[in-house]
Write a structure and sequence with these properties.
- The protein is an alpha/beta fold.
- The chain has one domain: Beta-grasp domain (Ubiquitin-like (UB roll)).
- 20% of the residues lie in helices and 30% in strands.
- It contains two helices and six strands.
Length: 92
Amino acid sequence: MRILHLRGKKRMRIKVKLYAAVRDIVGVKEETLEFGDGTTVSALLEDYIRRFPQIGRYRDHLILSVNKEYGAPARVLRDGDEVSFLPPVSGG
């Protein structure tokens, strides 16, 4: 379990679902991570880019959803939230 931004803050668990190219980069389709209270969608994305730099190429095109709704970068995550990384898809 990965821990981000704790420093004395209350811990919360977030389920992260990964799709398409992001899933291929990370190597799993979902994981549960532990964060400190007050972590934002943007901080979660930056943590993934730090751990998996290849995700950075999708930064401007990724859609992140929180509990199946658009997850604005400044949105503060809460214990039990489910975040999905939805990279761009192509096809015809």
